[in-house]
């Protein structure tokens, strides 16, 4: 199983929207590295959903329900792909970017090192650690 972090602007589409809808097509990614990461996703992989821009916090856990296929919003069609996601669980509490940056154990994760990347891999240890942090009382 793979582990990922995907960013979304909550004003456009939030984790709560994913829960409400029950699934979504994750479209509109226009970065080759992010696209390649989406191509590497497998059905059943788990995804941390990160609210960017206004909130800057991890919000919930989703699962890849369909592996990559052509992005229907791509014009002209050809370069971009989508995956389908379904919600699993909201995090016990939102884990802010400030908390993540304050933890030395997370200094090298892609969210910090490649902050503009919208789809990034995580190893299981980091994925589990982020969830564990969200289960703890806020430290800041």
Spans with pLDDT under 50 lasting ≥5 residues?
none
Helix content: 25-40%
Find the CATH superfamily. Answer: ph1033 like domains
Predict the CATH topology: ph1033 like fold
The average pLDDT value, as a whole number, equals 95
Q: How much beta, percentage-wise?
A: 35-45%
Order of helical and strand elements:
EHEHEEEHHEH
Number of helices, counting only DSSP H or I runs of 4 residues or more: 5
Total domains, how many? 1
Largest sheet report: 6 strands, mixed
Strand order of the largest sheet: 2-5-4-3-1-6
Distance between the termini: 32 Å
Q: What is the strand tally?
A: 6
| CATH architecture verdict | Roll
Class by SSE composition = alpha+beta
Question: Radius of gyration, rounded?
Answer: 14 Å
User: What overall geometry do the principal axes of the alpha carbons give?
Assistant: globular
Write down the CATH class: Alpha Beta
